[in-house]
Amino acid sequence: MNFTNSLTKWYLQNKRDLPWRNTQNPYFIWLSEIMLQQTRVAQGMPYFFAFSTAFPTVFELANASEEQVLKLWQGLGYYSRARNLHKTAQKVAFELNGIFPTTYNDLLKLKGIGDYTAAAIASFSYNEAVPVVDGNVFRVLSRYFDIETDIASASAKKEFASIAFELMTKNARGGAELSEANPALFNQAIMEFGALQCVPKSPNCEICVLNSGCLALKRKKVGQLPVKSKKTKVRNRYFNYIIFSDVNENTLIQKRSDKGIWHNLYEFPLIETETEEDFEFISAQIQEQPMVENGIISISELSPKSQIHKLSHQHLHIKFWKVNVNETLENGIDYETLLRLPFPIVIFNFIEKEWK
Length: 356
What we know:
Blueprint: H1 3-14, H2 26-35, H3 41-54, H4 58-63, H5 66-73, H6 80-95, H7 104-107, H8 115-126, H9 135-144, H10 156-169, H11 183-196, H12 215-218, E1 235-245, E2 254-255, E3 266-267, E4 270-273, H13 279-288, E5 296-301, E6 307-310, E7 314-325, H14 335-340, H15 345-354
Parallel strand pairs: 1-7
Antiparallel strand pairs: 1-4, 2-3, 5-7, 6-7
């Protein structure tokens, strides 16, 4: 069988109607690719529509404040993507006259654009014959060709990209539509095939158009591929957020300025502990190390059980504590103002659902 022709024919019959597939505009393709890094299509779609509506060109995005960008990104996670998105928009708008680089190598020079995103933009917008290699591509190729290379290894991307390039440019038959003249079609097809058909767990191999040539299926190794070394050990952290409330029901917030998670997002004053602590410990901390000059009226625990917020390499165990104080807080913020600012989604959900 011919892998490339079978794959692309399957794609033309089964592809999803996604908005970024109906354009060759590099701005929208770039926007979608950044959003879909480590994000499911269903989750990323509303954000794509929100950004493309609020910022219809790279100039509007470049002229927005970082706070506006982070607020619109709120809930999508991996916020460094949003900060890099904003910086790259400013470079393209102000230094490149709004014109994205037209080659894979030049696209790689932009902040936040790696091999995969550069290949996607170069092929989808400019028809450059460069393969994309994401998790879907790793999975399809490793199973079809029974490749046991650890996809987390340094050499894996180069090896799989070489195979994909060979399939894209030399194995296609039946005209220019399925060959090097249309690399976008091959790239879209193999990614979509991995997303819809050759899924990570329990794929339906009986209906697969590639099943006659799939070595993993023949050797009963579908569930074992791709090979990926174990993830980095997850770190547990314990966050105690202090919700000060004055006579006007105003509160205090701070911006996370340190590098690391949630950089430049807002949060409440924080006491981070080594383990989960009880009321007695936290209330003593609040009173011994006063964060405000106002007198404390009462301290109460708003979340007796920690919320666990899972990030890629960290599990955050989060509790909220309310501290009622005398008089008015200096630099106090009201509820309506809170809603307009960018917070980590776990904090924003608390503000929306449990504040009043």
